[in-house]
Task: structure prediction
Amino acid sequence: MRGREVSVFCIPMRGPGDTQGLTRLIEGGRLNPFDIVAVLGKTEGNGGVNDFTREYATWSFCAVLAPYLGLSPKEVDERIAFVMSGGTEGVLSPHITLFARKDAAVSHGGRKHLSIGIAMTRPFRPEELGRAAQVEETARAVRSAIEDAAIAAEEDVHFVQVKCPLLTAERIEDALSRGESTVTKSGYGSMAYSRGASALGVAVALGEIAGPVPDDAIAKDWSLYSSVASASAGIELMRSVVIVFGNSPATSSPYRIGHAVMKDAIDLASVSAALLNTGLDLQMMSGEADRRRIVNIFAKAEASPDGMVRGFRHTMLDDTDISATRHARAAVGGLIAGVAGHGAIYVSGGAEHQGPPGGGPIAVIAAEEP
Amino acid sequence: MRGREVSVFCIPMRGPGDTQGLTRLIEGGRLNPFDIVAVLGKTEGNGGVNDFTREYATWSFCAVLAPYLGLSPKEVDERIAFVMSGGTEGVLSPHITLFARKDAAVSHGGRKHLSIGIAMTRPFRPEELGRAAQVEETARAVRSAIEDAAIAAEEDVHFVQVKCPLLTAERIEDALSRGESTVTKSGYGSMAYSRGASALGVAVALGEIAGPVPDDAIAKDWSLYSSVASASAGIELMRSVVIVFGNSPATSSPYRIGHAVMKDAIDLASVSAALLNTGLDLQMMSGEADRRRIVNIFAKAEASPDGMVRGFRHTMLDDTDISATRHARAAVGGLIAGVAGHGAIYVSGGAEHQGPPGGGPIAVIAAEEP
Amino acid sequence: MRGREVSVFCIPMRGPGDTQGLTRLIEGGRLNPFDIVAVLGKTEGNGGVNDFTREYATWSFCAVLAPYLGLSPKEVDERIAFVMSGGTEGVLSPHITLFARKDAAVSHGGRKHLSIGIAMTRPFRPEELGRAAQVEETARAVRSAIEDAAIAAEEDVHFVQVKCPLLTAERIEDALSRGESTVTKSGYGSMAYSRGASALGVAVALGEIAGPVPDDAIAKDWSLYSSVASASAGIELMRSVVIVFGNSPATSSPYRIGHAVMKDAIDLASVSAALLNTGLDLQMMSGEADRRRIVNIFAKAEASPDGMVRGFRHTMLDDTDISATRHARAAVGGLIAGVAGHGAIYVSGGAEHQGPPGGGPIAVIAAEEP
Amino acid sequence: MRGREVSVFCIPMRGPGDTQGLTRLIEGGRLNPFDIVAVLGKTEGNGGVNDFTREYATWSFCAVLAPYLGLSPKEVDERIAFVMSGGTEGVLSPHITLFARKDAAVSHGGRKHLSIGIAMTRPFRPEELGRAAQVEETARAVRSAIEDAAIAAEEDVHFVQVKCPLLTAERIEDALSRGESTVTKSGYGSMAYSRGASALGVAVALGEIAGPVPDDAIAKDWSLYSSVASASAGIELMRSVVIVFGNSPATSSPYRIGHAVMKDAIDLASVSAALLNTGLDLQMMSGEADRRRIVNIFAKAEASPDGMVRGFRHTMLDDTDISATRHARAAVGGLIAGVAGHGAIYVSGGAEHQGPPGGGPIAVIAAEEP
Result:
């Protein structure tokens, strides 16, 4: 049967402009640059409005890939889905996870393996961010990405990453100058709205909630959420990129993906459940061999909006020195790194409508054999 | 046999000036204010040089206790050992752990229970901080506190908390004006020196290392460390307060203390070992009843000085926006809170000579019965 | 003629709990504690939601004044108007300006001198902050304070300081639990709403704008503003304190007050105009004697909401590491300190509806003789 | 007479990767890219160790110039002296000042005009930073740059910009692994040492102080300083770039440069003196036409190391939330922008040995005609 082979590479970075690991993979013949479909990175910025490490890293990778692909850097950015999530607080370690795929024969065993699909939304106008228009357009792109991944059943979708735009003072002024109003006047605040609308788009596409979602439910009605959505807002683009991860019988990769939902920021039981869902076991994690089967863990973290974690007050939302997303990434990153055995994991901040309030989805990609 | 009864209360705080929980305990007849010997708190400041939440909380408790004890607030501060550690990053929750003791008959069973002892150093001059003079005077105070706790064997000492001074621009100028030089001209940097010298004082007192320790080993030779020392630097005092925790046959409390040493910031296995050492079990932690046996967990966190955690680069030491101690507390706090089931735990930053580089001691106080 | 004598003292602070300067004034017989009516302070916190230096300083002054006045600290807080503005960024220096007044004979010269009046609002509910209810109740208190100051004409009012509440995660939850909604869910964001509503209350009371002000103009319609209002939000109270400063023929103080309005954050010409309005001259400022006539300068600073200062982009609003109010205080503080010759000036952040967008009122209190 | 024509362009940036202003100049025929010799920029990072906006901006300009110059981006970086100073706190506005020069006939009038010269040091090893080796090699490069600028007399040198390296955790480890020790183990702290050594190199080259400078005077003996040195540390290079600005009879530009030394961070009189030295007048600054003669102002800012500004305590050095360099840039930027009339000025933090303690050099480039 014709299908696709999917490869995954986890590459440490020594700075947001460090592309040496990627170059070595290509020069060493281990990676055909034409097969690359997506790059999910953690870069060492503040993860906020003025985090330029995301666009710097994206442009560095585009520039280094351009000659290999015979494209301009801008064309590389249009060909490959780059999702850079800023913020490596605490023990988190800057790195990228690179996904490649190519056509290949797939055995008829019927066993499902890691598959990946991509789609993009149209560019958004500043006044659309955080509103129903963003939800609907995102849902459309998610459905398109599921098809691209050759995933047949919605329950085989385990992680949907959306990279979405944010507002800046300049973009807000642009909307105002055209007589439009934006959902908020705060650049930092807009990141929450945009992530929230993106996650609701995933939830609608997967039938987790019924659409359409009204404007005033976004970043407000926390009972609406997706169990597999992960959204990151970035200053460097005005459209969204959607990447769907799941298991498909049409893929021949040696990896599987599983997931669970953390109910709050300290939900160790759900970290363990996500491992189990992927075929791993927390107890096994003490052995190095088993630990190495983990390719990466993808999780969303947020400060619980009611100011409490299991009945105890947290101070993340009232801290004027450090943004709540940085606090949350550091704490959840510490917990998951403790389980994974290292900090090169993808913990992304701001989990609005991504899992229940204060919690978030957690997905694990693991090799089937040690 | 005559001995002492030790009580422990863990009280959430709604702000650094919130003393209502303490007042309720006293007014409800559950705590005799004359029995209070020590208060270890986590306050919601930055934990750095200009963290005034520590002195604000101390003064608030002194002021509220003063009329009960018939003392001035300043006299209360001299009677009770207050150790406020600033920084409740991530899921950490502001709270105090209050220790009380009184004379009581102790059964002849010989079983050891939680005991506590206190001592103070003489006031230090700015130029003594981070140098041999601080190590030696701290060691003297530790020995005095062990005696006060009626702990016979050094292996029964499980946690030694030292609250030590730091340098400010003003104190550095004071030394310079007298023709003396301080160990550093950075206020923030002085906190590391002072914590380091304090921890080495504990190590010397317990025979973990051989003294005397030369000036140039402090905050430099990381092979020297204590497995039970925890030091916090604060702007509000120029002498150190030492509190020794251990198990003693001369105590009748229903609590026991145990400890382990985290080898690095993600050492989940040692968190588990500390629970075991106290008679608990990580697996049991999934049950609420067993979790409630934990009274508190005390741990030190620091950014690994070589810039790596298990072979992966961390960015804590190169971050000019957030101090490394804040990063480390957030990450280690997230890990331990995941095990403890809540964030009202005592995770303190800056573990110089407290455990191996990048790691730190972790102690658990637990009730013997659920 | 019967009138009042007003005294002003500017006292440096070595920390938010430092009350020694005040004690010395009282013990030295230079200040009768019963005459104190208001204290405006700059404390060295972040000026944001979790700036506890404001309440710590207030608490410290109340505690030290309590025995002198034969009151409890809480009663002192109700008797004297304490306004602590957090944030001494850049060259700003922590200090308080203390105002005292007592009955005295006033000569019939008719010349006007510095006068001061105080009033308080009723406590606000969380859901009232940033809305019309806050505007109206503040306006009522301003009129009452003008009367208290014995100022006859509105043009003799030169500075109106309002200390107003802010929202915290807890207060927002409180409103939600009663079925009410707050104007924002962001604690930091609520400070802008509360300051804005307070300033509009001043504008309404002085007839600078016509009332009533609708909810949706607050923190939105920047064409509405007061030229003399200064509002600071603080976590420590739920009612507002209003202090009116102006010149009155019924006062015998050796001081005068004048003001101007800075059009933007770099409006040196208006700093100069404020000096002129008070009887001083920028050119004279080079002489030490003339400089010493300045008792204090009171100014509001804010990041221009359109992201520009005189056609050049600023980055204050897009900075996730440092809040915009801290940026603005540092910059405006640098400019005014350059003119005043020192940094012990009162520059307070967040000038919503206080002067035009990006600008703010500036008032100068000066001695009539060098 | 043969000489050189010097041009200067001040170009706003909308982000650290924004090169559109430069492209427009070239495409519009106003700038020949082969004439560009130096670019001094202010980028919107934190100006600290992990400020990647500096290298991102440099990289972006190199990439856009590469095809024009027929070079690789790396070769562009070697051809043109890029000095990016991070940190646009307060009203400071991101921009670059671009200097171009070409051979041209110069009239025999003998009047001196703005001239510029460039030189580079050899690459430094981590252990050389902040020590005598860096001072000496920098002095050598300064003398070479003066010659390149065709400046005959040392008093015609008005500003010497040095871009120097800093230490990172990785570089410190590198030195340690070779058995060498670095001057400090703090990345942020190393910036002060490297800037200090660079400034002393300028002072030695210009005869402002006598060499050789011993290791232990660097960042310690503040009586040694240069009145025209400006040093910025950046993570992106391990050698230093030196740019000398002065007036030369061999130049035909329509600009002149002058300077003064700010004695402290609020020294308005010296800002005025720098204008005068360049042929401008503070009083004239109120007129727009005169203001437009200012091309740019270059100044160094730092927190006074004794913790005081004119007898009043500042809090910059004890702030664990915001680094002292950010505080100082914001304050001094506010003062100078108030005089210049806009924030697109070059205020750079960390003035160790650049002017007296707490002060710094200030240079003005102005057009001779309005």
About this structure: Chain D touches chain C through 45 residues (CB under 8 Å). Chain D has a mean pLDDT of 94. The radius of gyration of chain D is 19 Å.
